[in-house]
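#struct-pred

JT: dropping the chains for the assembly here, can someone run the whole complex?
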Amino acid sequence: MLVNDKYVPRHKMNFVLCHWLNGISFLMLFITALPLFTDQFQFLYTMFGTATLQNAHRFFAVVFIVTPIIGLLIAREGYAKMFNEVFSFGMDDIKFLIRFPMELLGMHPEGVPKQGFYNGGEKMNIALQMGIWCVMVASGLILWMGSGYLDNSVRAWFIPIHSIAAAIGFAAALAHIYLAVVMYPPSLHGMKDGTITAKYAKSHHGKWVDELVDDGEISQGELKKALGK
Amino acid sequence: MAREMAMLHDVSRCSACRACMVACKQWHDLPADFSTPFEGQYQSHADLTSKTINLIKMNERIDADGKFHWDFIKFQCMHCVNPGCAKGCPKNAIAQLDSGAVVVDEDKCVGCGYCTINCPFNVPRVDPDRNKSTKCDLCFDRIEQGMVPACAKTCTAQAIEFGTIEEMRELAHKRLEVVKKDFPNAMLYGVEPNGVGGTHMMYILTEKPEVYGLPADPKTPDSVNLFKDIIRPIGHIAGVGAVAGLAGVFVLSKMFGKKGGD
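RK: done, full complex below.
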């Protein structure tokens, strides 16, 4: 069933909630640690105080760590889908990625295969962020409360590891935000109320829409109507 | 220009009277520290704290022959020749002075605690109230006035000696010969260059360093160089590059075609 004859249901609201918890906590973690990494953001320490930012960093760290755990309880379906999709990386994803740079420049290349629930790029981003999450959480916990369990000669290594992971994670997040906000605003709708327009779904996740039709989740008729054919 | 100085603690002469701890608190105007509850132990504090930056450790030990030993050692910042704390400080708040003293500049310190993690001896303590890193500063203010650090000044047993690094090296070797007669395992610690380049806090130990809770082979972590010399500069370039790159993609996509939104 389409929503309002126009929108394909894509994410459950609990999953949307987890997305924003994860996104906001990551961004806040990045900002609260930024003045430690670059002096251009020293003003944040001056404005809020060093202890405030450091305690905020710990607070958002807890949110960041707990979000996927909550997600497995309240948004199991969405998380399961994410894991399944990431570990089913195939030829269509590679073909998509090869043509994506042209797409990025607005050139709509020919021969992009129909994409599933997540496209090749999204799968890569999800896999990367999962890896980054593991590294950030492990290295962060070691720095935060590893004293007494690990020798400093080992712990010291987790300072650069934590920084590198944060930098890579942020770079990926920048690209993610750019694609959502600037390139494909209709996709952003999916993270507002969990639905995207049938038109966008058909053109960007064709394989998924076909599956929905095959499974009887949406009917051929209402899809045609929504697409204006 | 100040001369390079050093402090020498001869544990064989130390009676653990703790006058040095009191003198340290007095000079640095540090309050009494009740962080360790009294449970019948002799050692006053379990570990260094932001209020107790010089600690006499009193360790009870029974050796392989079943003989009882009581090991005393004065524990504080070692004032490394290659200080990991200073190198790893993201705010450059820790400096090594000409005297060899490694000193925290509290105006620059943000209390992140990286110095503690980068210290092979796990010395600096971030003060929970002021959020500033604290540790022994070798009484650099006294040294610069030609005075001796408060702890060395007060030591009646001449267990704590202070002078130029050459004098202390010479004294250490001379005393070691004497100490060896009673303690065959006696050794010098930090006197010669080691993994941290040597230390301005030197010891004559009667047993191997592990007995006193000191690392046998302290080393300035390689990761501090990685963080400061490579990751931070690359991070700065990458940060600017990422924004410039996205702006470039945005402009190019406007030039090449219409938005791929639907």
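JT: nice. The mean pLDDT of chain B is 93. Strands of chain B lie at 5-10, 55-62, 68-75, 94-96, 102-104, 125-126, 133-134, 160-164, 187-189, 201-205.
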